[in-house]
Amino acid sequence: MTGRTGLGAQRVTRRTGDRLVLDGLTLTLRPGETVGLIGPNGSGKSTLLRLLAGVLAPSGGVVTLDGRPLGELGRRTVARRVAVVEQHAHTQTELTVRDVVALGRVPHRRAWTAATAADGRAVTEALDRTGLTDRADQSWHTLSGGERQRTQIARALAQEPRELLFDEPTNHLDIQHQLDLLDLVASLPVTTLVALHDLNLAAMYCDRLLVLAGGLAVAEGTPGEVLTADLIKRVYGVSAEVTAADGHPVIRFLRRGAQGPARGASPGRPGSGGPRAAHVGGSERDR
Amino acid sequence: MSPRTTVSTAVGLCALALSVAAAVTIGPADISASDVWTSAAAHLGLGESRLAPLRDGIVWDLRMPRTLLAAVCGAGLSLCGAVMQSLLRNPLADPFVLGVSSGASTGAVAVVVLGVGGGAVSLSAGAFTGALLSFGLVLLLSHSLGGSTDRVVLCGVAAMQLFSALTSFTVLTSADAETTRGVLFWLLGSLTGAGWTDVLLCAGVLVAVLGVCLGHARTLDAFAFGEEAAASLGVRVGRARLILLCATALLTAALVSCAGAIGFVGLVLPHATRLLTGSGHARLLPVTALAGAVFLVWVDTAARTVLDPQEVPVGVVTSLIGVPAFVAVLHRGRRTA
């Protein structure tokens, strides 16, 4: 595994209590690509992102950055390379947009020193890139959900990462802001891994998809390869029609009981044990 | 340090120096500002004192240490409050949230009422030991429960209740009226009888802890969006939390053992200072420390002069001023939430 560039996970497992949240998952992010992470609630998406960010330690296997285990690198070194945007950021502290974005410089700054010109430049560029320059002095608490997410993205950009991890960044946003946000995400000049619930958005914006179910990777490939009616049936237990348009698959879900193929068949799933995913209900909210 | 921080700190230091000099002149004996200067200069080896020994004694042995201890306590409590509020992400946190003051009370009562230590241990030493014991208990308990900040707060509240109960029990069952009065006075917070040893000891701890906290200013900023967000910004959360909790608990224990549990300074002053400085800790921490120092110097001056010759415990005065201020902060919080 040495000599490999970028962020990757090799056979990582994560156990909480006696539940196996991730079960021997391997993932390599190629520089510059946008990878979508999809799967039902509780499939291990958030856990995988936290392992890759080094916020959580794997119970088994290893997460590497440029071939070196994250544990060896130290938190600050990792934070200068890998930035995270959570699905929901909350604070009680009174902060301006600029204050929040400046937090991205924390891993770059030393104790006892004032901000350098490079720090100022990184913050200005991040604000500019996310279209927040005019709002820099506005209070975080007065922002809308979409603006807060953009502010967090600006903060992540101020970290000057090469790998950027998103945990369902479009949650709680209306469709216009979802598209705006993903346009921004896909345009960023960094390697991105983004956990998404909406399969159509994943198909539109990602170069590659990784499908998780019950802590296992059940499929990986381009959206066209991965998003088939069969896979959606197997992983989510719902019926869908998949057509192709504009070079990516378009998914139309079918009402339960209306028609569609018989349920239950699950050939081709790696590993053993029934797909837990099939029991997932209709809730769209994770956690 | 940024230029703005330097300016705010310089302004605060001047205000503090003037406040101390002015506060020393206030009291039953008529002392002028030049008397203060002469006495201080003489004792610091800068010239001869032309003051009568009695007046010199009032300035240098009574009022000066008391005023300086007020400044050190105000600074320390305000600093600890600011750090606790950010670290525990709880606007209601204050230096006593981890049970340090209740433990100190129990320790002090054990020495004064029960005679623990057989007279060889002072009230301050007993209080300091009790404070550290209580904090250690909170730390152990919260660690065994996973160490997250809400656990730390809950364990602190539990310890506070436990040690308050122990204190009340001891006082009610064993103390006579005279001792009870003395203990009560101390429990409410009082700077009476402050000596140079107290001042130097507390000032030493204050400087060291202020240094540690300023070194962690950026880390404290990073806690704004929670511990996991801080971790993803490169903060070693467990280590930073332990260092900051221990440093602030040590300072609080030292202050409480010298002056009792002076309430509300550590709760209100950081909130008030944030309105001026914003939330960046590199600026907030030194300014809030200076604001706390100036505040307590004046509150203590009021406490010892308003009902002269009777003295009001300074803790009572801080709370009388603190409660309305606290309500105002809550009102403001309601608007931003």
From TrEMBL, chain A:
Q: Where is the composition biased (Low complexity)?
A: 257-269
The record's listing under SMART domains reads: AAA (SM00382)
Which keywords are on file for this protein?
Answer: ATP-binding, Nucleotide-binding, Transport
Q: Tell me the GO molecular function terms.
A: ATP binding; ATP hydrolysis activity
Among its keywords, does the record have Phosphoprotein? no
Report domain ABC transporter positions. Answer: 7-239
Q: Which PANTHER family match?
A: ABC TRANSPORTER ATP-BINDING PROTEIN (PTHR42794:SF2), HEMIN IMPORT ATP-BINDING PROTEIN HMUV (PTHR42794)
What is the protein's name according to its record? Histidinol phosphatase
The species this protein belongs to is Streptomyces yokosukanensis
Automatic annotation (TrEMBL), chain B:
Q: How does it sit in the membrane?
A: Multi-pass membrane protein
GO term, biological process aspect, one: siderophore-iron import into cell
Q: Where is the signal peptide?
A: 1-22
Indicate the transmembrane segments per the record.
68-88, 95-114, 120-140, 152-172, 184-214, 242-269, 281-299, 311-331
The molecular function GO annotations come to: transmembrane transporter activity
Q: What subcellular locations does the record give?
A: Cell membrane
UniProt keyword list = Cell membrane, Membrane, Signal, Transmembrane, Transmembrane helix, Transport
> What does the entry list under GO cellular component?
plasma membrane
Q: PANTHER family, per this entry?
A: FERRIC ENTEROBACTIN TRANSPORT SYSTEM PERMEASE PROTEIN, PERMEASE OF ABC TRANSPORTER-RELATED
Family affiliation: Belongs to the binding-protein-dependent transport system permease family. FecCD subfamily.
Instruction: From the Swiss-Prot or TrEMBL record, give the protein name.
Output: Iron ABC transporter permease
Originating species: Streptomyces yokosukanensis
